[in-house]
Write a structure and sequence with these properties.
Blueprint (H helix, E strand, L loop, with lengths): L1 H6 L1 H28 L6 H15 L6 H26 L7 H23 L15 E4 L2 E4 H23 L1 H11 L1 H6 L4 H27 L5 H16 L4 H21 L4 H15 L14
Antiparallel strand pairs: 1-2
């Protein structure tokens, strides 16, 4: 066992890094879909926009100021984009998820095409900040410092999102709106503002994830579809609206992606969707998902 862990330590750490990044991306999608009942297929396009924003600010010669600036601008633009998506989907609140999916998919296609026109079809690189662009030794194996830091950022954001949802007034309003929307409206709370706030937070996290993922994935056409599929798999496995479920689901998929490509290179995709199918059969609501809320 120790020999196996030693031989696959780098892959395991890669799985944790990928899982941390997927959590930052998927938790917003999970909250918007699970709590606000809106299927946002533009989430991957926001990630891609964040990656290109990182390239625009940072490029191949990163500095701490430029990298921090990219993260700040990504958070602001993402929050504004989330507010816009909230307004766009509001007329579809009482219609099927298919209508929401078509609308947000259209937005995603437009955004992806505009980014392709602006930056071209080549892979654009994003450098890690100084001091994080090297490697260090972990249990005898050499590993990139930036990916270790990314694991820590994912853990900190998991705690922060949990505190916001469980310990703040916004989190209380969100949970109340999910439990009984009519009662929340009767108490004078504007449900649309709550929805816009959740949308804004989720979209901001998606764009921030894009900047953070830039040094790993770069920025390229098609990346939006790849990460969206992974995020949807994470949400389904973890359960809608669950921060803990998004975290566990992301870590599971991170390991499946990393170890699967090393140990079962030819069957990596089958292992990924096989895990999804297994969860759907045994626990359709996801590992930590609550019972479905009735649409109102």
């Amino acid at each position: 066992m120790l020999t196996w862990l030693d031989a696959n330590l780098v892959s395991i750490l890669n799985g944790l890094a990928i899982g941390s990044l997927l959590f930052i991306l998927a938790v917003g999608l999970s909250l918007v879909f699970g709590m606000m009942d809106v299927l946002n297929l533009a989430h991957g396009a926001l990630f891609l926009a964040g990656a290109y924003l990182g390239h625009l600010f940072v490029g191949q010669q990163a500095g701490w100021a430029s990298f921090a600036g990219a993260l700040g601008v990504a958070a602001v633009i993402g929050a504004l984009a989330g507010g816009g998506l909230s307004v766009m989907t509001e007329p579809l609140a009482h219609r099927s998820h298919l209508d929401q999916a078509l609308l947000t998919l259209g937005v995603a296609l437009v955004v992806a095409e505009l980014l392709s026109i602006a930056f071209g079809n080549d892979v654009q690189s994003v450098a890690a900040p100084p001091g994080l662009d090297g490697s260090t030794v972990v249990l005898g194996s050499t590993y990139p410092v930036y990916r270790l830091v990314l694991i820590g950022i994912g853990a900190l954001l998991a705690v922060a999102v949990h505190v916001v949802i469980e310990r703040t007034r916004l989190g209380l309003l969100v949970r109340a709106a999910v439990a009984d929307r009519e009662m929340v409206s009767a108490l004078g709370v504007d449900e649309r503002r709550v929805k816009a706030a959740v949308f804004g937070i989720g979209s901001a996290l998606a764009m921030v994830a894009g900047v953070l993922g830039g040094p790993i994935y770069g920025a390229r056409p098609g990346l939006d579809s790849t990460v969206l599929i992974l995020a949807l798999v994470v949400v389904v496995i973890g359960g809608l609206g669950s921060v803990r479920g998004a975290l566990i689901g992301a870590l599971v998929i991170g390991q499946v992606e990393s170890l699967g490509r090393v140990l079962l290179a030819d069957l990596a995709s089958f292992v990924l969707f096989g895990a999804l199918a297994l969860v759907l059969v045994l626990r359709p609501q996801g590992l930590f998902g609550a019972r479905a809320q009735a649409r109102t």
